[in-house]
Structures are given as C-alpha cells and as structure tokens.
Amino acid sequence: MPDWNAVFVPSTPVLEIFLRGTITFLVLMAMMRAAGQREAGGLGITDVFLVVLVAQAVAPGLVGESHSITDGVILAATVILWSLVLDAVAYRWPRLSRVIKARPRLLIEHGRLNHKVMRRELMTRSEVTVQLRLHGIEDISQVQRAYLEPNGMISILRQNRTETDEPARPEVL
C-alpha cells in the first residue's frame, strides 16, 4: 500500500521551497541577462548539454531533501510565479523593463557593423554574414538596419524597403 503522506504531504517546509525557488530563479535570470542575447536564439547540441548540466547543478539547491509530488509542484509554481511577476513588473514599469527584459540591439546601421554590439555579444563578422545570407542578403550595404532581437534572432530592414525579411526556410523535398 502506498504511503500517501510521503507522496502528497510536503517533506520540506513550504517557505523553504519558495525561498529556494525564488533565489535560484532570480540568480539564474541575472546570470542569463549578463550572458547576453545572442545565446537565447537557437539551441545547438552544446546548448542542450549546458541546459541539462545547469539543471542538474541547481536541482539539489532547489529541492533540498524534498521527496513528495507537492514539493515539486510548489517549486514549479514558484518559478512560474516569478516569471509572471517579472513580466508584469516589466509591463507596468517600463523603466524597470530595461533591467528585466532584453532589448533589441542595433547591429547594423546604413550598411555598417556596430562593433560595440558585436563585441558585447561575442559575434564575429562571419557569423553576421551568415545571418545576412539566411535573409537573402549578400552585401552588407543592402542593409539599412539590422537588430539583434531579445530572442537571439536577427531582424533586418533592407535599404529602400520598410518591411523586414523573414529568414529563408529550408525546402522540404
């Protein structure tokens, strides 16, 4: 017969779970903001490994000695709560939004690379030209403005055009 208390009754004090989740979430958010935007775009295999390793590294600090389902639910609710709170704060107070949320960064203006942004995001010229080619642009002089977006993608406004170009999608055979 299952021990229902062990399954559903929290094995760790709820306040401790909440504090562990809060501190870990806020510290990881700060670390991700400091790491820059470029890393948020697409996940390669090393990125997936990094996510798994970070999750493994913080798991003991998040859960402590907890074992019940309720402990996990409380922890998940804490992380979701803080995500919603930060979104609400950024929406309500735009000045705080600049600290909480990433903003688009001007990467190219009138065909000239912004080397300061490239240095900050650790982007090489060849990485930028790859992104331009994905948008069907062979010459940087064709770009009026290009932004490194908060999700890590690059949006491009061509010279003499106002709409953005979508990256080319691979054709399915």
Automatic annotation (TrEMBL):
Pfam families: DUF421
Membrane-spanning ranges: 6-28, 40-62, 74-93
Lipid bilayer topology: Multi-pass membrane protein
Database matches in Gene3D superfamilies: bsu07140 like domains (3.30.240.20)
Domain YetF C-terminal: start-end pairs: 93-161
Cellular component, GO annotation: plasma membrane
Keyword Transmembrane: yes
Keyword tags: Cell membrane, Membrane, Transmembrane, Transmembrane helix
InterPro entries reported for this sequence: DUF421 (IPR007353), UPF0702_alpha/beta_dom_sf (IPR023090)
Highest taxon in the source lineage: Bacteria
Subcellular location: Cell membrane
PANTHER family: UPF0702 TRANSMEMBRANE PROTEIN YCAP
Similarity remark: Belongs to the UPF0702 family.
Protein name, per record: YetF C-terminal domain-containing protein
